Amino acid sequence: MPHLKPKVFISPGVSGFPDTPKLRLLSQVAKTKGLQVEVLDCTQIQDPEVRVERLLKAGVLDCKHSILVGSSMGGYVSAVAAETHEVDGLFLLSPVLYLPPYKNLDPCPQAKFISIVHGLQDNIVPPENVRRFARKFSGDLHLLQSDHSLDEHLPEIRVLFGQFLDRCLQANNPAEQGSGGNSDALRASP
């Protein structure tokens, strides 16, 4: 049976602009792994619930294997989209979780692997929100000395995302299967 490679869908933050250094980096990392990537352009969509629908219509529902990636509002969008369709992976950067006025204050994604990168000095999304989410879904949590943007940590994000993709790809390759879902431990990077 051939190795089934997932498609990566990247959801941007509140600006909706798909061509930021952070999103270009994520796209580049996925492409070096031989993955097909779609970065959503949401510049005309400010409503996060409409963005969820946009993400699902972009092809997530048609993919047997997919990885959702989101930054800030895009993290929320990816987590909510993963409620309706199981995904191989959910990689979130400073996700907006458990914050009004977002409609879904308690998303329950169906993801085999979850990894979150968040700044300890984030003044938009309290770090406790992502700790709660990571604990609830046995996700890997990487806390960095950063604000909400994480812009000064692109090299670390490159490494973390590459490792995350390797983990998802290994789980999809029956010849290499042996590790289950998320680890039970909550891991925090210094």
How would you portray this structure in words?
Helix content is 33%, strand content 18%. By secondary structure, the protein is α/β, with parallel strands linked by helices. It has a single domain, classed as Alpha/Beta hydrolase fold, catalytic domain (Rossmann fold, 3-Layer(aba) Sandwich), CATH 3.40.50.1820. Helix 2 packs across helix 3. The radius of gyration is 15 Å and the shape is globular. 42% of the residues are buried.
Please supply descriptive tags for the structure shown above.
alpha/beta; Rossmann fold; 6 strands; disordered C terminus; 33% helix; 190 residues; 5 helices; single chain; six-stranded parallel sheet; globular
Average the pLDDT over all residues and give the rounded result: 90
CATH-defined superfamily: Alpha/Beta hydrolase fold, catalytic domain
What is the helix content? 25-40%
Terminal CA distance reads: 40 Å
CATH topology: Rossmann fold
Q: What's the architecture, going by CATH?
A: 3-Layer(aba) Sandwich
Radius of gyration: 15 Å
Largest sheet: 6 strands, parallel
Please tally the helical runs, counting DSSP H or I stretches of 4 or more residues.
5
Count of folded domains: 1
| Coarse shape | globular
Strand segment count = 6
Unreliable residue stretches: 176-190
CATH class: Alpha Beta
Class inferred from helices and paired strands: alpha/beta
Q: SSE order in H/E notation?
A: EHEHEHEEHEH
Which sequence of strands runs across the widest sheet? 2-1-3-4-5-6
Taken as a percent bin, the fraction of beta residues is 15-25%
